[in-house]
Amino acid sequence: MTLAAYRPRKVPEALVGLFTLALDLRWSWHHGSDVLWRTLDEETWTATRNAWLVLNSVAGDRLEELSREPSFLARYREQMEEHDAFVHARTWYSDQCANALDRGVAFFCMEYGLSESLPLYSGGLGVLAGDYLKAASDLGVPVTAVGLLYQQGYFRQAIGADGEQIELYPYNDPTMLPLSPLRDENDEWVRVVVPLPGRDVRLRAWIGRVGHCDLLLLDSNDPRNEPGDRGITSELYSGDPEKRLQQEMVLGIGGWRLLRTLGRNPSICHINEGHCAFAMLERAFSWAEDNERDFDTARLATRATNLFTTHTSVAAGFDRFPRRLIQLYLGPWLAGQDMSVDELFSLGSAPIDRDESGQPLLNMAWLAVNLSGRINGVSQVHQKVSQTILEPFFPRWPREDIPVEYVTNGVHTPSWDSPESDELWTTACGRDRWRKPMRNASPLDGISDESIWAMRLAQKKRLVHYLRQRLSSQHCDQGPGNNPATACGLLLDSETLTIGFARRFTEYKRPDLLLRDERRLLSLLTNRDRPIQVVLAGKAHPKDRTGKALIRRWKQFSRRPDVEGRVVFIEDYDLGVATQLIQGVDVWLNTPRHPWEACGTSGMKILVNGGLNLSQFDGWWAEAWNNDVGWAIRPGATFEELSHTNDHDEPDSRELFDLLENQVIPAFYNAGQDGRPKEWIDRIRASMNQLTAPFSATRMVRQYVEDFYLPMRALGKQRDSETAHTLVQEARDIASHWPRMRFSGLNVHDKDDQHLYVVDVYLDGVSEQRVQVELVAEASEFGEREVHEMKMVQALEGSAHAWTYQCLVPPRPEGHYTPRVRIRDERLNLPLENPSVLWLK
Ligand SMILES: *Cc1c(COP(=O)(O)O)cnc(C)c1O
């Protein structure tokens, strides 16, 4: 389908290209066209950072005037040429991957954080999705993202006089967001329909351009829908399960239908969190229809190219819906397919998914697992955590074998670097450095201490200036009884060690770790020679009372006269606030309870700008930390069983204070003859050198392409309709024999200081080519975990389909090694696609 150009207002012919520029969200990180928007309407641009709004609100006279002004025209043409060159430029993908992804990747997520001017996100998940999309554009990977266009989005935050959070829901006029209605060649608005009980909901489609990638957004606010349905896409994370289910249906079912309507038919379907699992189901349904096959065949054919990324650290984080809600809402959709509600539950409800009265619940993550060809967590620690929380779903598999891999998250560096650091990196590595792999392992070695320190000072000056502006506009801080000098940040100082803490305020993130010893904190804040100052920001979910209480505590602490304005709380944490904080702070603090931080990304944003991390050894920091690059609380902590205990809060808090007092503060203030802190700058250089590129979204997206999309695509290509059908038949055949398969006669012989295990296996008609016999020892005081393949040595005399297997292993006490049989099939990803396993008891 060719799409019509969107030009809602009159613009002089000489400047029509502004539509193209304003509708490409590339301006949110590229900044080349900033000067155009500022010239058009400085006030609107500064207040909103929304180029589309600027273009639509600037007076016609002003546009006419500028269309005749040579300097503006020159800049405009330069930007148009630059944009044109960008659109046609070769990319990492075009050079390295030769279009191997064919029709590209569909990426599904409930939220997208691309710019503060497009408020379709609440926090980490959305920002990650935004950064992923921008990096995919930089690399030229053909990604179409799918999401929802929320009219109100997530709440906006103000803080009341006593520190209580106030939640505001301003309406976003979608025509003023940097998006266009998706219109077909007849200029008709593209719509798709999703069945709801007794009615259809009509969805309008919008498109956002993110450089080389598209973001498709669905919106139910069609006047022809029932009033209640028009609000399905109003708020993000409202907390109402019924609305949530409606949103997930709109996103998954509506999203896949939209892709089909547009003829995109992507090669890979990547879902970010289980919320979007209905997309995979709809994908299988449409494949079944196209190929006239049953659902099992469709599932097998499509799942090879479905990727499920989980970001959750606790099983309670998985969305689960009660049966009556599923029956009511999904009934009409399933009725048109080859599937009953019972069959859906057998696919997406494990025995542990029960409500209080024992009724089954549909678990969206489990549904996603059963429809995916690969699954990944978002850090090395999170891989283990995910294996643990999925263990009950794979009842006969040990944790280590649960088929979850990991890709550590990364951030879109060009979105987070400051103008000063951009300049520094350009000197060191040239332009376009983030659009391809970074070859140089120590790119900043040629940059002097002086340059690094000058960059830091400039960034901090800007931060202090920004904080003062923000604080002055936070109306409650100007209330009676407040000291305006402290409330407006006049005592903040750009040479003082500045610590930043900004994230969702919720218990496990422990925003109060510093408040556990107020006296100790106070003495750090008010130290005459070596003071610190603290900048905070963050929202608590409207239903999280603990989180709100944590905000109140900090807010009240910051108002104490003896704190002397050295602690400030910035309201309404969003991408705009984050950008300012991560560019200026010296130390970024993160204190989640280990191992609860799936990954964490905010600390990665400071790397490019020369900030340093002081963080719990958890998530990404457990992979990144070493002594040269920053500080870790409880370094080397090993993965512990998941239990939400606060046992470590007290010692972690003490360790944090010790680090600050004995290491961080002295290193920062220990300046040499030249007035610069040598050790600190060495750390900055090490952190920038070692961590910036590895924790970038460019690395992350390349890893998704190389380690997931490409091999998944190759596997998926083998599954044409006929092969998929055969594989399903074979699986059914194996399943019919599996219950009668058995071991017999395990013998262990000594052989050259080793043990020879010999066992007979009765396969009950299953081909010996289709099974793998293994000998497994779990980790113990006798050694690491071991898994050995046992070799078939002979057919067992006198019985058909029985074989003897053996294996030579290092000695362990009796009972430590256990044989098992599992399926062997290169055409499948195992054990995910067939978890059949038989252990010798
Ligand atoms: C980066 C970012 C987050 C996520 O940060 P975490 O370290 O995962 O807490 C959340 N909100 C905003 C606005 C961000 O910019």
In short:
The chain is an alpha/beta fold. It is built from 30 helices and 28 strands.
Give a topology summary.
Blueprint (H helix, E strand, L loop, with lengths): L16 H6 L4 H4 L3 H7 L1 H7 L2 H7 L2 H7 L3 H19 L3 H5 L8 E4 L15 H16 L3 E6 L7 E4 L5 E4 L11 E2 L9 E6 L2 E12 L2 E7 L7 H4 L10 H21 L6 E5 L5 H14 L3 H9 L2 E4 L10 E3 H13 L5 H8 L12 E3 H8 L2 E4 L2 H11 L14 E2 L6 H4 L2 H11 L19 H25 L10 H4 L9 E6 L15 H8 L6 E6 L7 H15 L7 E4 L4 H10 L2 E4 L11 H4 L6 E5 L4 H4 L5 E4 L15 H21 L8 H14 L5 H21 L3 H17 L4 E10 L2 E9 L8 E7 L8 E4 L1 E5 L6 E8 L7 E7 L13 E3 L2
Parallel strand pairs: 1-2, 1-9, 2-8, 9-10, 10-13, 13-14, 15-16, 15-18, 16-17, 18-19, 19-20
Antiparallel strand pairs: 3-4, 5-7, 6-7, 7-8, 11-12, 21-22, 22-26, 23-24, 23-27, 25-26, 27-28
Helix pairs in contact: 3-4, 9-29, 11-12, 11-14, 12-13, 13-30, 20-24
The structure holds pyridoxal-5'-phosphate.
Pyridoxal-5'-phosphate binds next to helix 9 and helix 24.
